[in-house]
Write the structure tokens for this entry.
Amino acid sequence: MGDLMMGLATEDAAGRPIPGAAKSWSLSPDGKTWTFHIRDHRWSDGVPVTAQDFVFAWRRLLDPKTAAPYAYNMWVVKNAEAVSAGKLPPSALGVSAPDDKTLVVQLEHPAAYLPQLLMHQTAFPIPRHTYLKYGNAWSRPANDVTNGAYIVKDWIPNDHLTLVKNPLFYDAAHVRIQTVRYFNTPDAQGALIRFRGHELDTQNPYPAAQIAWLRANAPDTIKSVPYLGVDYIVANFKRKAFQDIRMREALSLAYNREAIAYKIRRVGEQPAYNMIPPGVANYPNTATLDFKSLPYAARVEKARALMREMGYGPKHHFHLVYATSTNPDQRRSAAVIQQMFQQIYIDMTISSVEIAQHLQRMQQHDFDIANASWIADFNDASNFLDLLRTTADNNYGGYSNPKYDALMDKAQQTVDLKERGRLMEQAEQLALRDYAWLPCYFLLTMDIVQPWVKGWIPNIRGFNRTRWLSTDSRPKD
């Protein structure tokens, strides 16, 4: 999507926000009104990109008839949440186009992170002229037009997507790669074989099980750096057993974070005792699970005591199903987690399905406990903490605490960044004491890149758009 489309802001070679479809912008003194000046550029069919394309796209996104599960990502815009809820018409959304080259965005509260949010696909424009012509078929390859560096040439579902350089891209003169092919590679081990055979120039993710081989044989290809992401396990609050905080606490106590991070994955991820990764902007990040300093053996004993309180023991085990994807690394971890929970009288069955199906069953709350991960859409703690709001579509477990919601609401209305960070930290600590999540480890970027690929800058956002890359002396084989 980042190769095809460009939001008001876009990414530079290191993943930082720079002007995109907007050549510049200005901010009102109260921080709640942003004015964007649309640069002169065209859709790939030659039609000019206008401010109305953004107004149209954002109204469509927030319209409840669209039922976009990611609509909440734009609730920072004035009236957006009310529009999503059907309480106001899409026309009430705080976005307007006084003319073709000017877009005015009114916010519910100040948001210094807005340029980063505008890089996200939810904020991309839609070619209004093709949508009006084709309806929901506007984005099919045959009808798709773009304002980014590339356009779609062909798409074979579950196999590959081929993009070619967009000659009408405003900065086409500096785009050096003419064709890019994305391959669907759910088997990371199989993809690594293709990478070693020079069939792939880059791969994400690489199999964690092969990290020792990579370090010994291809160390220069590894581009892993700390990432704004967290891997976690979520319990389904809609099922009675997991409404008991003792069950959620017991699971968190028995999960050995160090064993998973240092002995199973061995890539370099850090064990997570909270929800917000290091490096998040304007956030104190001192919230933590209360038992962090407790030795693992003592944690297991405490977990057993909690299970016995609930009526379980050596002769009466609790049974649960652990939902995960077919990713080999996740299945490998699941087998170890199974042994960890066995220590506290829990028999765990592993259910692994393809990632799309796994995400669907989490969104439908069709699981006991499930493996999940979250990678930040923008560098702000709220992007993680909003996942636990009662009304969030990606609140997979159905966690709901009015005090938590109130703290997040207050934080979002707070202009002072330090005070805002302190309020969000209070919310995180509350969620940790509720055992809303079982944080596992903080993510690293999982890229390997061939030495002939130039311009690749590992970064905390994990953005490496093709427009900034080139290939030098690529082997003919």
